[in-house]
Design goal:
single chain; 184 residues; mainly alpha; elongated
């Protein structure tokens, strides 16, 4: 219902409603819910009754694991804004750090990181598995049968960001055994 207000304001409201309707009309029900929930969260509005996080994670979410909340989305964006990840591996590291330290989820799967990334309305990963494997190679995550945990080296790296020089300095060393003896 339109409120009784100034003509220009009412016209703007009707134009916004019409544009929103046109944009959402061609989407499926789950896509509409995701779009509405994202828009409400982005504008700082309460989510409409009947739109829950479970409904929003719908077909994309699938599977088990902790469902992200709107609270998480704002926290993730704040963390990434402060730490300024330069690569997808750094972004999954920050998402894993967030799940471990703020969402109190000590072990997580790649899909948990992707779900949190989507809920925070961040750029979609080209290949989240490749980014997670890179984080494992760098010593930031431990792989425990498809579930990952943050290492102390990964935590140190996050704490040093956005200063990459300091982060690299404190990064875990992943060598191949003992150094060779120098022949002299």
């Amino acid at each position: 219902m339109a409120r009784k207000s100034g003509g220009a304001s009412a016209k703007k409201e009707l134009e916004a409603m019409s544009a929103a309707h046109d944009a959402l009309a061609s989407l499926g029900a789950g896509e509409r819910l995701r779009a509405l929930a994202w828009l409400c969260e982005r504008l700082g509005l309460p989510t409409p009754a009947g739109v829950s996080v479970e409904a929003v994670s719908g077909p994309r979410g699938g599977g088990r694991g902790a469902a992200p909340t709107g609270e998480n989305a704002a926290g993730v964006r704040q963390l990434l804004g402060a730490k300024k990840p330069a690569t997808a591996a750094e972004r999954v590291l920050l998402l894993g750090f967030y799940l471990t330290k703020h969402a109190k989820q000590s072990a997580f799967r790649t899909r948990d990181l992707s779900r949190l990334n989507t809920e925070a309305a961040l750029e979609k990963f080209t290949n989240a598995t490749v980014a997670v494997n890179a984080a494992v190679k760098k010593g930031w995550f431990n792989n425990q049968g498809g579930r990952f945990t943050l290492t102390t080296g990964g935590e140190r790296y996050v704490n040093a960001l956005p200063d990459r020089a300091a982060a690299e300095e404190g990064a875990p060393r992943r060598g191949r055994g003992r150094p060779r003896k120098k022949r002299g």
